[in-house]
Amino acid sequence: MKYIVTGGAGFIGSHIAEALAERHEVVVIDDFSTGHPENLRGFDVTLVEGSVADLPLLKETFAGADGVFHEAAIASVPKSVADPLATHEANLTGTLNVLLAARDAGVRKVVFASSSAVYGESPELPKREGMLPEPLSPYAVSKLAGEHYAASFSRLYGLHAACLRYFNVFGPRQDPSSPYSGVISIFADRILAGEPITIYGDGEQTRDFVYVADVVRANLRAMEGNVEGVFNIACGRTTTLNALAETMMRAAGRTVEVRHAEARAGDIRHSCADITRARETLGWTPAWGLEEGLARTIQAADPQRV
Ligand code: UD2
After folding, report:
1. 110: CA distance to ligand 1 center in Å?
2. Average pLDDT of the residues in 127-152
3. Which terminus in the chain has less CB density within 10 A, N or C?
4. Band of the pLDDT at 198, cuts 50, 70, 90?
5. Alpha-carbon gap, residue 19 to 15, rounded angstroms
6. Cα atoms in the Cβ-side hemisphere of radius 13 Å centred on 222
7. pTM metric for this prediction
8. pLDDT tier for residue 263 given thresholds of 50, 70 and 90
9. Whether 151 and 137 share a structural domain
10. Same domain, 112 and 187
């Protein structure tokens, strides 16, 4: 089979490409806006440098492909608040381009990386896919609208599409360099360097962390058969930031100073997914516990220092 991974040099995309490359022909499209070619070092994939904004390039690259994993995006809520148009172009026009190119190339299925951000601030927990979305940020709007485009292309043109609402994904290759990077990548980097970590707010906010290998398995399941619709991809368990910090220090075998700073503007207090639909419809269940995943992540962040 030939599979395309957009954003395949990024954190999640590179793990999908790696898993596929064992058995399939894989073409990665990435503009390296946040991805790095080193993320694919050692894997048998074809790398095409380009953006999902480039429809002719997508059409050319998708020829003969069986499926597309669409991970390319500006994956940041704060960036979308600062520049909604850039997020719209990369995330929504980009998704529409991917769907158009897939349709025209006769691709069987697109699996789209959506986000828990679509649920917004509604206090009801756990989040179920049937709840009314309340997207707040332009990022969340772009992901929700992408889901609707995918469903529309299924109905109108028979292009199969499944959308995965990722919760807080973590694992090796997640880039800690931006202040808006995933908290686990930042904590791993600081703890290994023996530097203080900062918890925003009282640290009792919760997140539903899911290890990237489980996210890859969800993608592979979602590509199988004709299953369509939206699916929460998470562990279905919550962890407070305070507990996370402690668990990470234990896993790394070192303690660093924990500083507290003001809660981040727009931070959601609690996040937790109901993953029944993914279990029942995709036959997927997360296999990695938080501690195991953290141990792997810390080891990969700097094997010399552990
Ligand atoms: C996640 C997604 C984001 C979007 C959003 C939807 C990630 C990396 N981001 O944002 O793309 O889908 O959910 O709601 O998955 N924190 C600290 N110290 C730090 C960094 C973060 O305390 O140094 C806190 C932060 O204030 C928040 C929690 O850790 O309460 C998680 O932050 P995050 O940036 O990893 O992810 P989140 O949930 O804001």
Report:
1. 27
2. 97
3. N
4. very high
5. 6
6. 31
7. 0.97
8. very high
9. yes
10. no
Q: What mean pLDDT do residues 30-41 have?
A: 97
Dihedral of CA 5/10/16/18: which sign? positive
Is the shortest distance between the CB of 191 and ligand 1 below 6 Å?
A: no
How many Å apart are CA 46 and CA 21, to the nearest integer? 10
Domain with 32, as residue range(s), is 2-170+209-234+273-286
Cβ of 212 closer than 6 Å to ligand 1, yes or no, is no
Query: How many A from CA of 66 to the centre of ligand 1?
Result: 34
Indicate which CATH number applies to the domain containing 198.
3.90.25.10
Of all protein residues, whose CA lies closest to atom 21 belonging to ligand 1? 183
The stretches of 63-107 forming alpha helices (DSSP H) are 77-82, 84-87, 94-105
100 lies in the same domain as 150: yes
Q: What is the number of the ligand 1 atom nearest to the C-alpha of 203?
A: 22
Domain match, 148 and 51 both: yes
**Test site for ligand 1: of 264, 268, 272, 297, most ligand atoms within 8 A of the Cβ:** 264
**Domain check: are 122 and 258 in the same one?**
no
| Domain identity same for 162 and 222 | yes
pLDDT tier for residue 305 given thresholds of 50, 70 and 90: low
**Residue 178 lies inside a defined structural domain of this protein:** no
The reply to whether 176 falls in a domain is: no
- Check if 245 has its Cβ closer than 6 Å to any atom of ligand 1: no
Q: Which residues contact 216 (CB under 8 A, 6 or more apart)?
A: 12, 15, 16, 19
The answer on pLDDT for 235 being more than 80 is: yes
| CA 215 from centroid of its chain's CA atoms | 8
Hey, whose CA ends up nearest to atom 32 of ligand 1?
183
Q: CB of 138 closer than 6 A to ligand 1?
A: no
Task: Please tell me whether residues 296 and 282 are part of one structural domain.
Answer: no
Asked if residue 177 is part of any domain, the answer here is no
Q: Are residues 295 and 147 in the same domain?
A: no
